[in-house]
């Protein structure tokens, strides 16, 4: 029986694994001795996996899930949660931006009866202006477009109770936004505040383009608002055109002058085609995602695991499937 699982998605973090492990150990030992640390190696190109294997050899509490290639941060989170067997599961980054000391506060809240405890960033030390500005924009954008309340200034760093984890494991969608999903699941939630520190070593894996992608994923997987906006734009243009038609017909009948206005015509044509193209591309996004989901491929492929035992998810899932077949 394990009280607490720590899940750490890791991509090119060779210099962070050991310092993180050392700090984690200190914190975890003061909470419980029934814990596990699951590193998910997301197809790192450096020596991350060797570093994790070294830790697995000296400490049976350290476990490894090694992907066959890079499947991305979201899938690494998903795999780690699937394989975790603790009563509570914590997700944290490998780069020490999420200080392990916060785990104590989160665990206390969990013991108080909360199912989801997310860490809220109170200060963003030394993050670049652009990073802070884009992140602010990101949360505003999300809050406006998505149908669920995602609290400002939270990352993936959070604790989930077994209730939340079990529900999370039932979600099979490919386009996923972990932060949003944990709130979508519901149950009683609260937050603890912490200062988000700069990365220990290495560089961020999220450039601007990836952040935009994440935002689009987040919005499209949670809301139909982008489609609805075009309904409104379409309707407004149709109304405007209707009045125009009436105006020009009356103009033609009453003045008998040939209609001028190549400029206004071309403006209207360009404007409307622009709107239509945008609308089609947004519909395309939804269709592409639907296609992605109906293919129903596995979410990730595991090369090997170390230390993961019978309690783990894939075995439980196989059992459940065999029961269904019987
Ligand atoms: N990560 C991952 N797969 C990826 C990219 C990132 O598992 O394809 C991990 C990374 O190792 C880190 C966490 O996800 O533990 C957050 O990534 P990063 O620190 O680059 O993001 P930021 O903190 O800058 O938002
Ligand atoms: Mg980071």
UniProtKB/TrEMBL annotation:
<feature type="domain" description="Glycosyltransferase 2-like">
    <location>
        <begin position="5"/>
        <end position="167"/>
    </location>
</feature>
<dbReference type="InterPro" id="IPR001173">
    <property type="entry name" value="Glyco_trans_2-like"/>
</dbReference>
<comment type="similarity">
    <text>Belongs to the glycosyltransferase 2 family. GtrB subfamily.</text>
</comment>
<dbReference type="InterPro" id="IPR029044">
    <property type="entry name" value="Nucleotide-diphossugar_trans"/>
</dbReference>
<dbReference type="GO" id="GO:0016757">
    <property type="term" value="F:glycosyltransferase activity"/>
</dbReference>
<keyword id="KW-0472">Membrane</keyword>
<feature type="transmembrane region" description="Helical">
    <location>
        <begin position="229"/>
        <end position="250"/>
    </location>
</feature>
<keyword id="KW-0808">Transferase</keyword>
<keyword id="KW-0812">Transmembrane</keyword>
<protein>
    <submittedName>
        <fullName>Glycosyltransferase</fullName>
    </submittedName>
</protein>
<dbReference type="Pfam" id="PF00535">
    <property type="entry name" value="Glycos_transf_2"/>
</dbReference>
<feature type="transmembrane region" description="Helical">
    <location>
        <begin position="262"/>
        <end position="288"/>
    </location>
</feature>
<keyword id="KW-1003">Cell membrane</keyword>
<dbReference type="InterPro" id="IPR050256">
    <property type="entry name" value="Glycosyltransferase_2"/>
</dbReference>
<keyword id="KW-0328">Glycosyltransferase</keyword>
<dbReference type="GO" id="GO:0005886">
    <property type="term" value="C:plasma membrane"/>
</dbReference>
<keyword id="KW-1133">Transmembrane helix</keyword>
């Amino acid at each position: 029986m394990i009280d607490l699982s720590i899940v750490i998605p890791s991509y090119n973090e060779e210099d962070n694994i050991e310092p993180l492990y050392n700090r984690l150990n200190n914190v975890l030992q003061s909470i419980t001795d029934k814990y596990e640390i699951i590193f998910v190696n997301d197809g790192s190109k450096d020596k991350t996996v060797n570093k994790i294997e070294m830790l697995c050899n000296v400490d049976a509490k350290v476990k490894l899930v090694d992907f066959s290639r890079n499947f991305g941060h979201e899938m690494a989170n998903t795999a780690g949660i699937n394989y975790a067997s603790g009563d509570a599961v914590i997700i944290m980054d490998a780069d020490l931006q999420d200080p392990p000391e916060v785990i104590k506060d989160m665990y206390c809240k969990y013991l108080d009866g909360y199912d989801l405890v997310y860490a809220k960033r109170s200060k963003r030390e030394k993050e670049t202006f652009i990073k802070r500005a884009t992140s602010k924009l990101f949360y505003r954008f999300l809050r406006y477009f998505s149908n669920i309340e995602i609290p400002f200034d939270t990352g993936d760093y959070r604790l989930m109770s077994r209730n939340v984890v079990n529900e999370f494991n039932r979600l099979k969608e490919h386009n996923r936004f972990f932060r949003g999903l944990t709130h979508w699941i519901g149950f009683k939630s609260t937050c603890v505040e912490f200062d988000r520190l700069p990365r220990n070593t290495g560089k961020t894996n999220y450039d601007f383009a990836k952040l935009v992608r994440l935002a689009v994923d987040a919005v499209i997987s949670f809301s139909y608002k982008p489609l609805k906006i075009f309904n409104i734009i379409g309707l407004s243009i149709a109304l405007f055109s209707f009045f125009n038609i009436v105006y020009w017909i009356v103009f033609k009948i009453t003045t008998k002058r040939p209609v001028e206005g190549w400029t206004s015509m071309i403006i209207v044509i360009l404007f409307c085609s622009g709107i239509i193209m945008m609308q089609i591309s947004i519909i395309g996004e939804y269709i592409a995602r639907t296609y992605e989901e109906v293919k129903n491929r596995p979410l990730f492929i595991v090369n090997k695991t170390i230390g993961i035992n019978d309690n783990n998810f894939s075995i439980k899932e196989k059992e459940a499937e065999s029961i269904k077949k019987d």
